Amino acid sequence: MVVNNVEGGFHQHGSLISAEQRSLFDILQPITDASHTRNRKRSPPDSACFPGTRLQVVENVNNWARSDVTTVSEPHVRWMHGYVGSGKSSISQEVCETSKREDRPVISFFFFRNAGDRSKIGRLPTTLASQMAAAIPQTEPFIREAVQRNPALLSPPGGGVSLQDRMRCLVYEPFKAVVQRKKSFVHESFKALVRRKKVVGVLTRGPFLMVLDGLDECDDKDEVQELIDGMLAFFNNNPLIPLRVFITSRVEEHIQSRLNVPAVRLDNLVDHCSDDDITTFLQILFEDGCRRNSVIRAYVRQHGEWPTQSDRRKLVKHIGGSFIFASAVFKFIMAMNTEANDPRTPMDRLPLALEMNPGLDGLYAQTLARSQHLPHFSDIISTITLLSAPLSTSAIAELLGIHIYEVVNVLVNLQAIIQVPGTDDIPVTLCHTSLRDFLTTQSRSGNFFAHPSHHVRLYLRFLECELQYLRQDPELFVRSSKQIPAVVGYAFRYLHNHSDGGLGCFKPSDYSSAVHLCRQALALQPGIPEWITVLATVYRDRASQIGSLMDIDKAISLHREALKLLPSPHPDRSLSLNNLGNALIDRHWLTGTMADLEEAVSVYREALNLQPSFHPFRSNSLDNLGGVLLDRHGCTGSTADLEEGISLLREALGLRTISSYKSLALTQQSR
């Protein structure tokens, strides 16, 4: 017999030991560190409710779990969802612990991202079946019988037996067989079955409970949906089965689309985030911290209670219901995981934590420092900060030319301040906009500052990624039915934001690289107005930086070329007209040529005529035409231009355009 050591036990290959002689544990090969009984210090999440916290929400779940399925109109399945740090896993752990204390049978599986088989669904059926046999021994012969009938139930995921069939044969049907030994009892109530003594005594204390925690942490999205579909179908066919399933996860589409149905009870954990729980949580932490810290004890002897009740209330309000955030704030105040040479005391740090500026700055800096030493830290954080729309970990990795695991490695320590998704294709977001303010203000963020020059790198990398995909498929952007990669889709919408954000940081070599990339893209896909416009913008930006007439001439020529490819009524023609007008104005200011000013008036007027009152960019066109008419008035003294310019800027002001207000104010002052 060959024995291979794997996560969760040993795989045995060979036939020296018969199936009858082998233990069910050896046959099923469950994952041993996936349940609520795991060593949480070694197998995360290390989650548990603090004494005195989450009492009501845990009691609500326990009351549902205990309730008789035949007398209480409650769904068999309950889904609790919430954001990162809201305490989902802690509640799952406490619900399991309560079931154990009350001697009610419970089995569980705590999914966890990047934890081997615990981030997959393949071994879920065998793991749950093994736990069930231990909790309700009467199910073991039925599980053995199922395996004997169909050994493929133990095959690896994708080995020919669907997840639904494996759950049905290894978990649902064996449990049902114990509850109901004879088909004639199928329509009798649970209490009647107990009286007939056809159900094991342990079930008299309440239904069997299955807890699936962190379902969003499972990588197998399709199989997760298959699991839910099979579960709901089983309960639909067996409405009186004494089984409850408690599921927790973040809100992700593949889960929500299956669980947001009448057959499932929904719980939004945000509705249960009580300030009282945070108050109790902090009170326990501070009491323990004060006992261990001689500096705090000395302070209390001289000054009295610390923190004061007023400061505690402010702290609770500032935390806003997030237990992870509360823990991070506490660690910052108590100087946990900080540099040993930090001279500040906890009493010094408390006022900082109570203020958005610089209180959160210190907390942000403290949290970011946990990953600062890791490769690509600065690039990853700057990218997340400067993106105009969030990208997933896989897209960020592709953009930066690094591995996905390197992105995850940096972010995993930052979950108190960054929303780290459960899968590689879900966008990474900041927990609060104040973090972006911190990271984009150098005086506050110091070494963590997301420098505008990073916009330049992003701009070039987006162009490189687009070119790479074009080389693979030159018709990528031509066929409307083609699936556009996330990085490319982002670049189409937001590339100009990085061009604008990096103005003043582009070096001549950067502009040369951008020109070269655009030229290569146009060689692969000639006649595409988007690429022509990007190249024109590169030339115009370089001209504005170095004052090159040759570059502005090229920009104008390219904008004319793009405009020809967008005849009326093409929806992008008005934007192309405005682009040409902007370049003409640049050349007018560079050379003083009136012909450019006259043509700019003409193209701006056409652009405005193409944008009716409800058009989202009408205010920009009003600004452009109004401004250029005032410029022409300055050159010719035309009263008509002045009157029309003011009128257009007034209309733009009515659309609440800030730049219009400034232009109009300056014009009226000049009059």
From TrEMBL:
Keywords: Repeat. Residues 61-250 form the Nephrocystin 3-like N-terminal domain. It holds the Pfam family TPR_10. The keyword DNA repair does not apply. Coiled coil: none annotated. The keyword Repeat applies. InterPro entries: NPHP3-like_N (IPR056884), P-loop_NTPase (IPR027417), TPR-like_helical_dom_sf (IPR011990). This is Nephrocystin 3-like N-terminal domain-containing protein.
